Amino acid sequence: MIKKTGLPLSFLFLFTTILFSCNSNYTPRPKGYFAINFPQHQYQLFNQPGYPYSFEYPVYSTVTKDSALFDENPDNPYWINIDIPSFNARIYLSYKTIGGRSSYRVKTDHGYKDSSSLNTFENLREDAYKITFKHTVKASSIQDSAFVTPHGIGGIFFTVGGNAATGRQFFATDTVKHFLRGALYFNATPNEDSLHIVYDFLQQDMMHMINTLEWK
Q1: Distance in angstroms (rounded) separating the CA atoms of residues 73 and 67
Q2: DSSP string over 64-92
Q3: Which pTM does this prediction carry?
Q4: Residues paired with 204 in a beta bridge
Q5: DSSP 153
Q6: Does the first or last residue of the chain, that is N or C, have fewer Cβ atoms within 10 Å of its Cβ?
Q7: Which residues lie below 8 Å from residue 149, measured CB to CB, with a gap of 6+?
């Protein structure tokens, strides 16, 4: 005669399931990200009257001006943004004339006062390096690569690794009159793992902009 245990059938089923689970192999799944459908690289010409430069930029982007920036920097009317809505990204382009002057505000014990400085090539180049290396707190690496474009324009391209606010920057110049600086930002919390593939895609666009850049 089989002796009854008094245990409900549901308990025996749960116990068997737990026992089987403990003896099975568990394989953790790698962290995944959303699939991104990249558009085909195609470009259009930026050649607005009065601007001291021209270049080609992606057809899936738009050129805008930052009104707040111009209010604070009336001596820099040629600063523009390349907005790329599909990636929630923006390439900031700032232009300064070598030999010209830049206005800025200086903090003193009695508040802020207006001041200005001469735009020498050495000062502009040093400022570009300072701005880039401000990201060393979050950056795991910073690489600078010199370039010369098909139009004979030289400059430096910066690749910033880690979770810095901007991972791609550059400046282009003729060292005599023109100095253009660019920086790519995303309107999102920096995450190198998830943004790496987008950085690679947009870097091609930045390099195309640089290689098609011409001074007027």
Answers
A1: 10
A2: E--HHHHHH-TT-TT-EEEEEGGGTEEEE
A3: 0.75
A4: none
A5: -
A6: N
A7: 155, 172, 210, 211, 213
